[in-house]
Amino acid sequence: NEAGAIRYKFDISANTLNVQEVYNPGDGLVDARVKAVITDDECDLFTTASSGASGCRIFATPAGLSMYIQRIGTGSDAIFDTWQNYRYHDATGIPEGNITALKWLNQDITDDAGNTTSLNHLLVGTKRHGMASCGPNQLQSADFNAQGIATRLSCTPYNTTNYEDFPDDSVNDFELDSFGRLWVATGLQGITPNGSGGIGVA
Fold first, then answer.
1. pTM, whole model, 2 decimals?
2. Where are the beta strands (DSSP E) in 77-188?
3. Closest by alpha carbon to 129, among 155, 88, 172, 97?
4. Tens of pLDDT, residues 122-134
5. In this model, does residue 186 exceed pLDDT 60?
6. Longest dimension (CA), the chain
7. What are the φ and ψ backbone dihedral angles of 169, each rounded to 5 degrees?
């Protein structure tokens, strides 16, 4: 079977990598071609506080996002090894197309005036369909199932259609600097028109 992602633990004494967990489509992963992984141990992004969820892993694939939840609930009622997949459904969700990059912004940033903003957003970058920002504050109660897991995501899109200065719709990477500026690396070899692509800063 083709494994989408493997978590290893380094054994210092033996100087070896030992397999701890394997995530593949047979378990619930939406696609074996994993492009990026986010670890959300407290499941702060897409579960409710009352769910008792822990050990979340979010995988980016060409077919959408997959979220693995190691545990939901506590005690004898706990449920283990649950998956929730997110695919493109319309312009209010994750972007259409091959997901190529993820970045979890979960920090405080302070502007020049001394104002502090707490961030908790997942940035989703795609090939040819721009990017989107998805966060728990964008979700409604109807977006969660009885276990407190979000069954759909609500996102804000950013692309060359709705932002004139967005450099290109193929997103390769994200980085947030110490000044709170988001750097977006874009462009696709052989596809990006001359004069397009490059770095966008917000």
1. 0.88
2. 79-86, 99-105, 108-110, 116-118, 121-126, 131-134, 155-158, 171-176, 182-186
3. 97
4. 999 999 999 999 9
5. yes
6. 60
7. -85, 0
